[in-house]
Write a sequence for this structure.
């Protein structure tokens, strides 16, 4: 995003809605599990004490990547590389995201992951030293590494940019079978399959392999995208098979597959090199572009007047559908007067924020949404052909939006409205008496931790509190954990097994930075059953060697309690 958060103080909490049944998302047989869909945005409890400054997913991604202010990455959902997950089905529960520290891939202490891209089958992360790391499907070299079926662990991707010491990678994007790499010097590199010109190097290398089957050139390592030599590109975006780039003067370039006129160039001819989009090339600087975004089969430009314009196919019926795609960039009715702050395109969703009063209004639209990914609430339809205010987010200070294939994420600054939002899961097992004094008859109200529900008397805390504080509150262990650096292990939610630690986590955890080989830090992953009610199940842990592993017994009692007992 061009509106890249330059202010490092910008952080928030992760909200999520839509399909979280990762194994069945996108499958027909999912209907039996649709009860698990989150129809309204809720606070993702497992990460609710983490200060997050980046939420990453993509229109074809059935998983999420979340970056915190300390530079660690958290991943949950259907992992692009099965080895990231512990379970056989490759699913990482949203209640126990894996945490990957920059040092786990071999980066020096203090390095941070700062951005990334999530494609259907591969993932890329960018660090603040300008390095790129990828894993997942690499069958056509889409990660930028020598062709192989799968890259198991995050592996460094290098390219010709490394020859120029001034040149660092600052942004990456990814489609089904390719990736783009933007350098700090404003050049773009591409790797993967040349199909449809998506690598922007002037050719596809198409050849007939056998009747009806073609193969295409594969570019590895990444190769320079043509036509930007005298320009400075400042932002890029990719759909499944096409890309957009924005230069510092506000000109927009499109290339790749042009089906449904998704390039906004008024025809369906694939472009093998970046092609300027006339709509944003006028002399009037205000009509040029401020940000480019790609949906799976559409392109979005936010112009310098902050208007949302779209081309291609983004609906199932009527204007903008297969039969009547937008052949050039057009505004969307009902939001023509909205100034766009943040926008994102998911599988069939479009999410955006726009100023309202002192705060923001969060808006969504999209047809064919089956999972509640618009988050409009339980009493409203799941799909919206026209932009709708996402009412459950009323009053919540949304600072970023991210649309996935079947779910959506929002980043919310803590405020009172956020504290009133439901947490997910709503209930987890916890103690019912003060963890400090072990008494419940003192007459004093109990304060419960937002994350683990651990109860304390405000007066039993150090220092003692006068009463129930406004806004969010975390117990001492969850507070310590939230401020722990990227190398500290991540504590999953005590969904069906481990209970929250009774003592500050810092005393019980070991840094993994001392471990020799790159290690993907894995938290204890509770096995999630299909039923809603947690049952005792085996709990696996791959605690680093040397750390005593205590097998904690699962408790059967799941105790629901008010968020704050007032
Ligand atoms: Zn107490
Ligand atoms: Zn807690």
């Amino acid at each position: 995003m061009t509106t890249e958060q330059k202010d490092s103080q910008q952080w928030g909490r992760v909200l999520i809605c839509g399909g979280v049944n990762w194994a069945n998302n996108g499958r027909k047989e999912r209907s039996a599990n649709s009860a698990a869909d989150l129809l309204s945005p809720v606070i993702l409890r497992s990460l609710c004490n983490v200060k997050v400054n980046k939420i990453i997913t993509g229109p074809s991604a059935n998983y999420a990547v979340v970056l915190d202010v300390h530079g660690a990455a958290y991943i949950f959902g259907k992992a692009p590389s099965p080895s990231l997950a512990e379970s056989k089905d490759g699913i990482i529960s949203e209640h126990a995201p894996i945490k990957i520290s920059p040092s786990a891939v071999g980066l020096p202490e203090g390095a941070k992951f700062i951005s990334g891209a999530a494609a259907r089958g591969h993932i890329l992360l960018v660090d603040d030293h300008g390095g790129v790391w990828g894993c997942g499907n690499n069958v056509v070299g889409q990660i930028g590494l020598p062709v192989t079926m799968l890259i198991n662990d995050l592996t460094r991707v290098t390219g010709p940019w490394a020859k120029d010491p001034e040149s660092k990678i600052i942004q990456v994007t990814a489609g089904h079978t390719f990736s783009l790499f933007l350098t700090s010097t404003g050049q773009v590199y591409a790797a993967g399959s040349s199909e449809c010109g998506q690598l922007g190097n002037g050719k596809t290398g198409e050849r007939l392999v056998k009747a009806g089957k073609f193969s295409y050139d594969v570019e590895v390592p990444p190769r320079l995208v043509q036509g930007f030599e005298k320009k400075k590109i400042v932002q890029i975006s990719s759909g499944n098979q096409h890309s957009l780039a924005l230069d510092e003067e506000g000109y927009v370039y499109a290339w790749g597959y042009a089906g449904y006129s998704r390039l906004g160039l008024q025809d369906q001819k694939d472009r093998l090199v970046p092609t300027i989009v006339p709509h944003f090339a006028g002399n009037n600087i205000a009509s040029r572009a401020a940000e480019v975004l790609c949906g799976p089969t559409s392109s979005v430009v936010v112009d310098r007047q902050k208007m949302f314009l779209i081309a291609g196919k983004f609906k199932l019926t009527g204007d903008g559908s297969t039969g009547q795609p937008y052949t050039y960039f057009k505004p969307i009715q009902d939001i023509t007067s909205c100034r766009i702050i943040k926008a994102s395109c998911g599988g069939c969703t479009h999410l955006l924020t726009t100023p309202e009063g002192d705060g923001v209004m969060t808006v969504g639209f999209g047809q064919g949404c089956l999972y509640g990914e618009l988050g409009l609430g339980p009493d409203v339809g799941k799909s919206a052909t026209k932009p709708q205010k996402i009412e459950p987010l009323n009053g919540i200070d949304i600072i970023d939006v991210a649309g996935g294939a079947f779910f959506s994420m929002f980043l919310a600054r803590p405020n009172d409205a956020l504290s009133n939002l439901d947490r997910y899961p709503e209930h987890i097992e916890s103690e019912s008496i003060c963890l400090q004094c072990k008494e419940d008859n003192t007459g004093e109200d109990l304060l419960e931790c937002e994350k683990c529900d651990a109860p304390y008397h405000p007066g039993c805390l150090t220092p003692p509190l006068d009463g129930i504080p406004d806004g969010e509150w975390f117990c001492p262990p969850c507070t310590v954990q939230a401020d722990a650096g990227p190398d500290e292990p991540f504590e999953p939610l005590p969904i069906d097994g481990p209970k929250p630690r009774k003592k500050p986590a810092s005393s019980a955890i070991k840094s993994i930075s001392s471990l020799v080989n790159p290690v993907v830090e894995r938290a204890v992953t509770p096995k999630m059953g299909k039923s809603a009610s947690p049952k005792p199940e085996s709990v696996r842990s791959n605690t680093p060697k040397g750390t005593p592993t205590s097998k904690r017994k699962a408790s059967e009692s799941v105790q629901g309690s008010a968020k704050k007992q007032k």
In short: Helices lie at 416-419, 476-483. Residues 431 and 454 are 6 Å apart (CA to CA). Confidence is low (pLDDT under 50) at residues 1-8, 497-566. The radius of gyration is 24 Å.
